[in-house]
Amino acid sequence: NEITLRAYNTEGWLKSQPFVLSFDPIGKKGEDKEEEAGFIPSFQPVRDPHLFILCIGTSDYNGERLDLRFPDKDAADMASALSAAGGALFPSGNVHLFLLNTDPGTSKVAPGKENITKCFSDIAREARPEDVFILYLSGHGLTYGSSEKGQFYYLTKDIASEDLSDPTIRANYAISTEEFTQWLTGIPARKQVMMLDACNSGKVVESLLSASRSLNASQIRALDRMQGRTGVFVLSGSAADKVSYEANRYGQGLLTFSLLQGMSGLALREGKYIDIMTLFQYSRDKVPELAEAIGGIQTPMMAFPLGGESFDIGLVDEQVEIPVAQVKPVFIRNVFLEENAFDDVLGLGRRLENHLEQITARGAKASLVYVDVPEYKDAFSIKGLYELKKGKISLKARLFKGREPLGSFEANGQEEQMDELVEEILARVMEIINSR
Fold first, then answer.
1. Which domains does the chain carry?
2. What are the tens digits of pLDDT across the range 77-104?
3. Is-contact 90 50, C-beta < 8 A?
4. What's the pLDDT at 247?
5. What's the mean pLDDT when you consider all of the chain?
6. Which residues on adjacent β-strands are paired with residue 404?
7. Is 206 exposed, middle or buried (0-12, 13-18, 19+ CB in 10 A)?
């Protein structure tokens, strides 16, 4: 038997190396072994382990400034995957799912701080040491505070801005690493996992860099302190000040996409078990590859408890379906000019972009994604010249992928029927894409 000791500073964020003491119990029970006076051994049967899953996603914030596209769907997909795989591994009735997001179609519980607090309280009351607890977070996160005292905050649905200077705002609408630490340590389950896919900026501007998500040095220290105090297995979407993007072409956050991809079969132990270390390592290696394809680099932060052994959180067989998103074509701004006016006198480009935006707004059901930027690696764009004569439009255009021309096409329409022309243009474009 062993006992491990650590020393902490007053604030609790600085810890020593572990000191291990070996010992023999006062009383021993077994063949040819007598029990010593004063020691009454107790043997209680251990129940089968339970799996507790808490998935939180926040896409719709107070107002429109912070709204994001993917967190609701990401949380729902992770909840579906984890509960299905967990149900195949854990005994019947031993998987408990809590899903909170801002999409009424997938969750009846909104991700407000009060509801999140209640979920942790309910799980802490029901969980036992032999159980497994998984926490998944998707949405906005940022750091508030300076230097070593800076904390990472997850923003809940009722917050309207990223300004956390008001302590009342922090107390009511944000969750700090200190609070997560208290909640996690309050859950008796010895096996705990935290997956954090948090975006630092929801504002879309000219450069994709301003819609980036990253963890600065303060965030890294805050998450590391939490991991050290709780012994939880942590995987965070980005770290070391490397910028990452919300991966539009996958219809999901990159971290979430890689985790689901790994669970679908690419990172399974013995081809069927979801081993937490195997899954995390796959995601850590895969995310930078995915990010490179969209012009960015994202390096997930991964932390394991010292001496902690990996464990299985699910089993994937032919009955388990993992909802992995299909890669979608990405479109960016298009250029159309009337050949005599050298200008888009009909606003054809804007009309097409409005149509693409409407398709993109369908979310998970969208067949493509439109990003309102002039450049995006390997994205599709259309450039064309049209002639307007007596209300008739004759268009000659070419489809590009990045700077590579893929094919040319022609389309005709009427000035009074621009919507029909836009639909014909998109149909011709998709024919070229699907033929490749």
1. 51-315 (3.40.50.1460), 330-434 (3.40.50.10070)
2. 999 999 999 999 999 999 999 999 999 9
3. yes
4. 47
5. 82
6. 401
7. exposed
CA–CA gap between residue 99 and residue 208 (Å, rounded): 30
Rounded Cα gap, residues 361 and 368, in angstroms: 10
Question: For residue 268, is pLDDT > 60?
Answer: yes
Which residues make beta-bridge pairs with 19? 5
Q: Specify the pTM.
A: 0.74
Encode pLDDT of 282-295 as tens digits: 998 988 888 776 55
393 DSSP β-pair partners: 388, 413
Q: How far is CA 326 from the centre of its chain?
A: 16
What are the residues facing 235 on neighbouring strands?
195, 302
Query: For position 187, what pLDDT does the model report?
Result: 94
pLDDT in tens, 300-353: 788 887 667 899 999 999 999 999 887 888 898 999 999 999 999 999 999 999
If you average pLDDT over residues 15-28, what whole number do you get? 61
Over 70: is that where the pLDDT of 2 sits? no
User: For the chain, first and last CA: distance in Å?
Assistant: 63
